[in-house]
Design brief:
The structure holds two protein chains of two kinds. By secondary structure, chain A is mainly alpha-helical. Chain A is built from 17 helices and no strands. Chain A has three domains: 68 residues; 101 residues; 84 residues, Alpha Horseshoe (Leucine-rich Repeat Variant). Chain B is globular, with a radius of gyration of 28 Å. The chains are: A mainly alpha, B mainly beta.
């Protein structure tokens, strides 16, 4: 539980308690409490959304607690609630930055999710530094990737390149996917190296990125992949990527892939074949 | 407008199926000519409260049953259920979830949206019914593609979060927080994927009409507008037009899953946007004038929103997001079996409180089953209900007529731009203009936080906007402009002082090389708009260029003169007006003007805060955290724009102002209404068009006989008319390096 109640007390205006049972869009602290007690993500989400614009001091601590829920959906909607209250958000962000620096894996996960979802750009240096911590678990790393992906600023690239070299395949795949969605990203070179990753999910994600970003230099590796990868999703993504790259050199590989045993691959390969320059 | 059917208690709704269509014999009821129904079965869930939720993934029930398509043959309660997809399709489909589907015109293929695993996205697949084979349609593997429908000419339309504009991020919905869905289409052989122009929020549930147009639900959010309306486009996603729900015709906050009953008539779900599990009441909408021919009722003639009416087919079912009562429940979707005045429908319905919060708190999920609904007698006959599944989208497996192909003329000479305009801007069903009062039409583009902004652009709940320019209205009322394609656009009629006279209350957009020329300014929609090149003065003059080929990242300007200004970043423009014109000598924190404060009080605790007019570029005090918005917002912004009124209103706070002349007002500007804004009236702006002069807009004496320049006035006016935001691209925090 965050210990920010003292800071929040300084926000004198938040002493304005929400007395009506159905204030805001029908929401109230009591209903949030009941939803939390039910344990239902859907009930919690609905009640948090209902208090979107509600001035409600009782809600603050309740929603703050939800920032440490084990379920991402709950943390996400709680962060959104704070994002609608920017000054409060900035206060919570301060404590989250502390957690990035020295918190446990779970603390870092929660902090990264908060900072990312609230588009706290100023946290990017801290997110970068945290990615280099050597004692972080997968949950924290995935959250760091998720945060920079949501923020979408080039300042998050270092987080992603670090994650691409992580020992956990899910982190590498997430980083590859996020790379393409950073505003102003111009080169897929860091992702191309993952086309030969040992994990099929990583290879599939990398294929999509190099295809989507038009990284022609990856065509040869994709041609190998589209006919030889053991994983049908990776072959499918390679076929799609080759279509995006449109290189004549891919014709043979795509022709072969158009008779692939998997229904995931055949039409994708045929369509890519038709799109070659 | 609204003609309720008589309310009849449906009872438990678990009436026997006797007489409800036993299959094979056309005398046995409305399903008599239907050999079989296709039904989508999805494991029950509760994470689809919002009508635009499309990423829910739950492939199996607790007992391990997959999401699947089944055939019910004959379509009776004791009919045989056969799984047609995707047990046979291979190991790749072992964990597939299916969100929607459509049957081809010849009833030989089904296109469905499926997600193979938690780490993949929803893609499109074609099932060939003859052999059960399934092939994936090539779509971007990192994006979701849902709600597919077949189009004539071997094409498939879908909605997707894939992005039509290279280098841009897809718009994010500010409330339900999803990446927005837009329209697209692709050939059934997987070639030729095209993505439509973007709305600022979601577009969902496309449906093909017999006249060849596509109807879909569009979320309209522009300032105070927050509703899901039905819109039309041609099959090539051009010629966007209103369908139903605006101009006071709406049955509810949102109308979705429209399905045509007959020409100009359709059944749809009327509901609220959130917590309703995408379910609600059934309404029978007639877009045009009702015409009866035997048992068939149509409404094809004079279709327009203004002429539209609707009948509530299930009057007990809530149109809002309150929990539905026992035996009343909510409808997930409906398919018409005939076009009688009171049509027979095959529907998906769930009993009880179909509301995600209530269900979630109780640890329950809605249990949608398939029923035959006799709307004349309000009788619901059960056909199929797997208690572990949502049994949804029941559709007869039978051939259907292929509509014609609808498309619009595309002009390659536009070189990738979109051309917009009006034949006569004075023709409007929403506003009466004084002849010759409109100088031009201002065009603005919209964007959301995905471009690098916090959740709120200001306290007024408007999206980010950039001014693209003003196209002069010609003598015959016509105007034209070339603008960027595929982006949400907003238009305003402006006077010679640059002030908005009327804001079109929606975002519109056009595809590359599309010419979108309307009859007027939200003109009567049942009037044909036939453009004859050369017919209008604007065609003769040529369109006003408005950055049609300028990349998004470059559509900003630090030259704030009238013809160059794009975004109006508060701290970089409006603040400078105050700073440059000695406003702070009276209106800083020392309050030399002697303004009296207003107070905001919580009636429960008695706590209050006071605010006095202050035009300094200083951060807001912490006490205003909740109602003042972003920490970056300044005293001057808060003074002019005022607090977050929704927070005040919804929080039950009490605002106390005095009435003397020196009392601080809660705000000094009204979004999109510079002419009606106190600050503009007081300062009395100078003429802008066609050339800037010292002529004033009002006969009153300008406050302090100010000599604010015409450019500065335009900055103030434009900021207000573009929603009174603090942020613009020119001061977007996400565009910095960190």
């Amino acid at each position: 539980m965050k210990t920010i109640s003292m800071k929040l007390a300084a926000v004198a205006f938040l002493a304005l308690a929400a007395s009506p049972a159905f204030a805001g869009k029908g929401g109230s602290a009591g209903q949030i409490k009941a939803a939390i007690q039910s344990g239902s993500v859907d009930a919690i989400t609905a009640e948090i959304e209902r208090t979107e614009s509600l001035t409600c001091s009782e809600c603050v601590q309740l929603v703050t607690n939800l920032l440490e829920d084990n379920r991402y959906s709950v943390r996400e909607v709680a962060a959104w609630w704070f994002a609608k209250r920017p000054a409060l958000k900035d206060m919570v962000a301060t404590t989250m930055l502390d957690d990035l620096q020295s918190g446990s894996t779970i603390k870092v996960r929660n902090a990264a999710d908060f900072l990312g979802r609230t588009m706290t750009y100023t946290s990017l240096p801290a997110l970068r530094a945290t990615m280099h911590r050597d004692n972080l678990g997968t949950d924290a790393k995935l959250a760091l990737v998720r945060a920079v992906s949501y923020i979408g600023n080039l300042g998050g690239n270092e987080v992603l390149t670090t994650a691409m070299a992580d020992s956990d395949a899910s982190v590498r795949a997430a980083a590859a996917t996020a790379w393409r969605d950073i505003l102003g990203q111009t080169s897929a070179t860091p992702v191309a190296g993952l086309l030969t990753d040992s994990d099929a999910g990583v290879r599939a994600a990398a294929a999509t990125v190099v295809g989507g970003m038009g990284h022609v230099a990856a065509a040869a590796q994709l041609e190998v992949m589209v006919v030889g990868d053991a994983d049908p999703v990776a072959r499918r993504n390679a076929a799609w990527a080759l279509g995006k790259l449109g290189q004549q050199s891919s014709r043979v590989a795509l022709a072969k892939a158009s008779t692939d045993k998997s229904g995931l691959v055949r039409m994708v390969a045929r369509a890519s074949l038709a799109s070659l320059k | 407008m609204k003609t309720y059917m008589k309310t009849i208690a449906i009872g438990t709704a678990l009436l026997t199926a006797a007489g409800a269509g036993c299959g094979g014999d056309e005398d046995t009821g409305p399903l008599g000519n239907v050999d079989s129904l296709i039904v989508l079965q999805r494991p029950k869930r509760n994470d689809m409260g919002d009508i635009f939720q499309y990423t829910s993934y739950k492939p199996k029930t607790e007992s391990g049953v997959n999401a699947r398509l089944i055939k019910l043959e004959p379509p009776t309660a004791d009919g045989k259920q056969t799984v047609i997809c995707c047990d046979q399709a291979g190991a790749e489909f072992a964990n597939v979830d299916i969100s929607g589907y459509d049957i081809d015109f010849d009833a030989k293929r089904i296109v469905f949206s499926g997600k193979l695993s938690g780490s993949t996205n929803y893609g499109l697949f074609i099932l060939t019914l003859a052999d059960g084979s399934v092939e994936q349609v090539p779509t971007d593997p990192a994006r979701d593609y849902v709600s597919p429908i077949f189009l004539p000419g071997d094409k498939i339309m879908f909605t997707t979060n894939s992005i039509v504009e290279a280098g841009a991020r897809q718009h994010r919905d500010e409330y339900e927080r999803g990446t927005t869905l837009q329209l697209g289409r692709i050939s059934t052989d997987g070639t030729g994927e095209e993505l439509g122009a973007r709305n600022l929020s979601h577009r969902t549930f496309p449906t093909l009409m017999s006249d060849g147009r596509v109807m879909f639900t569009q979320w309209d959010h522009l300032g105070g507008m927050n509703a899901g309306h039905l819109m039309f486009v041609n099959q090539d996603m051009t010629n966007l037009r209103e369908g139903f729900g605006k101009e006071g015709t709406g049955a509810s906050n949102s109308v979705l899953k429209a399905t045509e009953i007959s020409a100009g008539r359709f059944v749809a779900i009327a509901t609220a946007r959130n917590r309703t599990i995408q379910a609600g009441a059934l309404i029978d909408v007639k877009l045009g004038i009702k015409k009866t021919d035997g048992d068939t009722v149509t409404a094809a003639e004079r279709q327009s929103e203004a002429n539209a009416t609707y009948t509530d087919l299930t009057p007990d079912v809530p149109h809002g997001n309150e929990p539905s009562a026992d035996t009343v429940g909510r409808y997930y979707d409906a398919f018409p079996l005939n076009a009688k005045d009171k049509p027979d429908l095959v529907v998906s319905w769930a009993n009880g409180p179909v509301e995600s919060s209530v269900l979630g708190a109780a640890g329950l999920e809605a249990d949608f089953g398939v029923y035959l609904l006799d709307t004349k007698n309000n009788q619901r006959h059960p056909l199929l209900d797997n208690p572990e599944m949502w049994d949804i989208f029941p559709r007869p497996l039978q051939e259907r007529a292929v509509p014609g192909i609808s498309g619009s003329s595309i002009d390659p000479a536009l070189n990738g731009q979109t051309m917009i305009g009006s034949m006569d801007v004075y023709q409007s069903s929403l506003k009466t203009f004084t002849p010759s009062s409109i100088y031009g039409v201002r065009v603005m583009e919209g964007f959301s936080s995905e471009e690098g902004f916090p959740e709120m652009f200001g306290t007024t709940m408007f999206e980010g906007q950039a001014n693209l320019g003003v196209a002069r209205v010609q003598a015959d009322g016509s105007w034209l402009a070339t603008v960027p394609s595929n982006v949400p656009l907003h238009v305003q009629a402006v006077d010679v002082f640059g002030m908005s006279m009327f804001s079109e209350p929606v975002w519109v957009s056009g595809r590359k090389n599309e010419a979108r020329v309307c009859g007027g300014c939200h003109e009567a929609r049942d009037k044909a708009t036939i453009i004859d090149p050369g017919q209008t003065d604007a065609f003769a003059v040529g369109p006003t260029p408005m950055y049609g080929l300028t990349p998004r990242a470059q559509r900003k300007s630090m030259d704030f003169s009238r013809d160059k200004i794009m975004g109006v970043a508060w701290d970089k423009t409006v603040q400078k007006v105050f700073d440059n014109n000695n406003c702070l000598s009276c209106h800083d924190h020392n309050n030399a003007a002697g303004m009296q404060p207003y107070t905001i009080t919580d009636p429960v605790t008695g706590t209050s805060v006071a605010w006095t007019f202050n035009l300094e570029n200083t951060p807001l005090p912490a006490a205003f955290a909740e109602i003042g918005g972003e920490a970056a917002f300044t005293s001057s912004y808060f003074s002019i724009a005022g607090p977050d009124m929704e927070a005040i209103e919804k929080g039950g706070l009490v605002v106390s102002t005095c009435t003397a002349a020196n009392c601080t007002s809660l705000s000094y500007a009204s979004p999109e209404d510079s002419r009606g804004s106190k600050i503009i009236k007081a300062l009395n702006p100078k003429r802008q068009f066609p050339t800037q002069t010292n002529e004033r807009a009002f006969t009153t004496t300008p406050h302090q006989n100010n000599n604010i320049t015409a450019d500065e006035f335009y900055q103030l006016i434009l900021n207000i008319d573009m929603g009174l935001n603090f942020y613009a691209r020119e001061n977007g925090p996400g565009l910095n390096n960190y």
